[in-house]
Design a protein that fits this description.
Number of helices: 13
Structural class: alpha+beta
Helix content: 55-70%
Strand content: 5-15%
Length: about 400
Amino acid sequence: MTDRIRKAIQDLKTPPFGKEMQHSFLCERIRSLSDVWILLLAFIVCSQMFNMVMMAWVREGGLAVYSHKVYFGLYIVLCIAALSSMVLLLVWKRNVQANAKRIQTALFIFGLIASLWSVAVTLYDQRVTENVTVYTYMVLTISILAFLKPWQALAIFGGSQLLLVVLFPTFQPVPTNNMGNIMNTTFCAIMSVIIACSRYLTAVREYWSRDIIKRQTEEIQRINAGLNVQVITDELTGLYNRRFLDERLPSLWESYAGNNVRAAVMMLDIDDFKRFNDRYGHQAGDRCIQQISDLIKKYFSESTSTVIRYGGEEFLVIDAANSVDEHIRTNADGLRRAVEQLHIENTAVGRYVTISAGVCIGNVMSGDIIDFIAAADEALYTAKKSGKNRIEISEQGTR
């Protein structure tokens, strides 16, 4: 029970999140309530100006009557406080992120002034009447429309009520039984505190719940994105796999077709890789594939090309751009020479590991991706047949 009470008191003092989230929460509340506050402040300004006109020119005796002067002064005070708060709110709400705490402080000060103002009016009313209506509707209005932290609500309503109870007899011309008014105003003050605290804590819990849901959603999306990448990524090389080719490449090719650009498809194969594996083992084969994959990434970046591990030792490179002809020729031959310069020993068939590649170049509109892959594969076959360690290039649509 003690722990629950301690937690409840802690919840009243501060929201259950850090400073950054507190600021974000405050900004959200200000944005959602600022228009209502401005309307309320404008209404208070207009009503107090109306009261001043009535007191100065309509009520009998005007400002020549002392009590009228007192009420007139009180109306001016509330009018100036409301007008100042409204102007500050209009200016500061343009950049809520930077001015959130200023706005909160200004509204707290206005709530305090308005509550004390209602106490002053109610006490002055005691000279001729026991009416406490002004105090009642003002504190309830503040509790409902102002966004007060629990300690602010306790300070405003508790302090105002204490002041009202203590000063009741001072303003009454004859001894009066104030028990009824004290009970009513105390109940009103307690209800105002409860309303303000309830609204604040409800808003905190809703924000906290939304934040939890948001973070959980982001985490799920992150996990799903990671799983999706794993599904379409080759584990050994980090390149796309055949699943990516089957599921994503058709739509990618359609986007190329929409831009009506030239495309190049290169089918690349490690020469005599089976014999390399038989001689040096599968672990050496994996290392060889990884080294060549790294070189492919270097010569064909992900920002301009799509690189896929097509099969065991086969790779597919797809490039689309208006300058693709020169780009693919230069990079393909550069990649071939770079692989040879790795000096990966392959004495089973020769001195070092080499690659061969077949390239198909053409306008995207001249065929679909399957046609380009088939043409590149045919060019690769020609390169292998012609002695390996070479690049064979064909033009799509010319055969």
